């Protein structure tokens, strides 16, 4: 797989779009289902999608969720000479971390590990990093090194190296996580990678955009410094994500008075308050079985659209996009319970709408994905 593509309008570095291809691999859930371990896993490591957005869930420096359905990852490298890692590009968290050679947890032993001693540009930070999950944690330490994203070096980037990881992480295909959110969400005051990219003048515009392919393993991409018109059609709707309504067949089924939503590449599903999610799933004919909302696989083409009304614009998700088929568990919707009022528009939504995160204007742009 190619590491990156750099698209330049001119020779000048500032005119470049930095693109990192994302690959759609098997999710942790798919691997666990194949091994017959999913039921045991889901009971042992209950999923709380709101943990990283609500510090009341966190017991360490940063809260993060164990989303077993995440499947998109890209490749970055750290150090000199480069050591490569598969990471989830997560717009809902802010830290970069990968396993280290000092970690002997099962989750580290089947992933790539960073060796600080093998990098001539590594500098020790001396600080500790702790990320708490619902039933375990990742603990480690902080250091500085050159991080290459899209082939371009981000120098003196602070990042975390794990010394222990929760057992469930051994089922993730990615080695670590690269957070793309604001610095205020960062653990230990670590400056996020994209903030350093902006500071070092590596991007032409202070924004990044994400395209997720619907079915193909390849074709997904995160673009730093601009937007790629090859991946969307029609106008871009610029939105301060604050209020939305949700309708099915023209009937309001959630957010009657408006509610707050976050577009998050680090969440696989569309997540909302239980009563609202129950309403949506009921309207599309889904039944709850152990937390999964199942529909008849033969009726996907007849399922109603679900429309999100955001900032005066309509964003429609058809049944073919919000239903996922499992060889072992049938067809389930991509609408999941979580939290009291906040909504998370995860990969189910982003696959339909090219998403642009504009840090300069504090806006999110959405356009119909190609």
Q: In order across it, which strands form the biggest sheet?
A: 4-5-10-6-9-8
Number of strands: 27
Measured on Cα atoms, how large is the radius of gyration?
Answer: 20 Å
**CATH class bucket of the largest domain:** Mainly Beta
The biggest sheet amounts to:
6 strands, mixed, barrel
**In percent terms, what proportion of residues is strand?**
35-45%
Task: State the CATH topology of the largest domain.
Answer: Cathepsin D, subunit A, domain 1
* Molecular shape: globular
* Unreliably modeled segments: 1-15, 55-64
| N-end to C-end Cα span | 22 Å
- Oligomeric description of these chains: single chain
The number of helical runs is 7
Helix and strand content put the structural class at mainly beta
- CATH superfamily of the largest domain, by name, is Acid Proteases
Average pLDDT reading: 86
Q: Any descriptors?
A:
globular; single chain; Cathepsin D, subunit A, domain 1; 6-stranded mixed barrel; 12% helix; mainly beta; 370 residues; 4-stranded antiparallel beta sheet
Structure description:
By secondary structure, the chain is mainly beta. It has 2 domains: 18-203, Cathepsin D, subunit A, domain 1 (Beta Barrel); 228-369, Acid Proteases (Cathepsin D, subunit A, domain 1, Beta Barrel), CATH 2.40.70. It has 7 helices and 27 strands. The strands form 4 sheets. A 6-stranded mixed β-barrel has the order 4-5-10-6-9-8. A hairpin with a 7-residue loop joins strand 1 (5-8) and strand 2. The longest helix is centred in the last third of the chain and has 10 residues, at 274-283. It is globular. The protein starts with a strand and ends with a strand.
């Amino acid at each position: 797989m190619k590491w990156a593509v750099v698209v330049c309008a001119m020779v000048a570095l500032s005119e470049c779009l930095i693109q990192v291809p994302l690959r759609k691999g098997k999710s942790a859930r798919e691997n666990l289902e194949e091994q017959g371990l999913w039921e045991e896993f889901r009971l042992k490591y209950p999923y709380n999608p709101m943990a990283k957005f609500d510090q009341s869930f966190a017991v360490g420096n940063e809260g993060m969720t164990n989303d077993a359905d995440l499947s998109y990852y890209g490749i970055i490298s750290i150090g000199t000479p480069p050591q490569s890692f598969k990471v989830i590009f997560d717009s809902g968290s802010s830290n970069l971390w990968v396993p280290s050679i000092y970690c002997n947890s099962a989750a580290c032993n089947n992933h790539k590990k960073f060796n600080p001693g093998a990098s001539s540009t590594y500098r020790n930070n001396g600080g500790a990093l702790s990320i708490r999950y619902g039933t375990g944690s990742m603990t480690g330490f902080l250091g500085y090194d050159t991080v290459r994203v899209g082939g371009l070096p981000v120098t003196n980037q602070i990042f975390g190296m794990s010394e222990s990881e929760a057992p469930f992480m051994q089922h993730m295909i990615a080695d670590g996580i690269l957070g793309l959110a604001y610095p205020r969400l960062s653990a230990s005051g670590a400056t996020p990678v994209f903030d350093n990219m902006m500071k070092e003048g590596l991007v032409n515009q202070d924004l990044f955009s994400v395209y997720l392919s619907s079915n193909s393993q390849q074709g997904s991409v995160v673009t730093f410094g601009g937007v790629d018109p090859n991946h969307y059609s029609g106008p871009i709707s610029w939105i301060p994500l604050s209020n939305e309504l949700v309708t099915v067949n023209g009937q309001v089924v959630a957010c009657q008075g408006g509610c707050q939503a976050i577009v998050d590449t680090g969440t696989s599903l569309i997540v909302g308050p239980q009563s609202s999610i129950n309403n949506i799933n009921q309207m599309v004919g889904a039944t709850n079985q152990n937390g999964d909302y199942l529909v008849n696989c033969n009726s996907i083409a007849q399922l109603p659209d679900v429309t999100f009304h955001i900032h005066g614009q309509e964003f429609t998700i058809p049944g073919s996009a919000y239903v996922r088929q499992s060889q072992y568990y049938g067809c389930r919707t991509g609408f999941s319970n979580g939290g009291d009022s906040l909504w998370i528009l995860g990969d189910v939504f982003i696959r339909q709408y090219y998403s642009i995160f504009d840090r300069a204007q504090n806006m999110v742009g959405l356009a119909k994905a190609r």
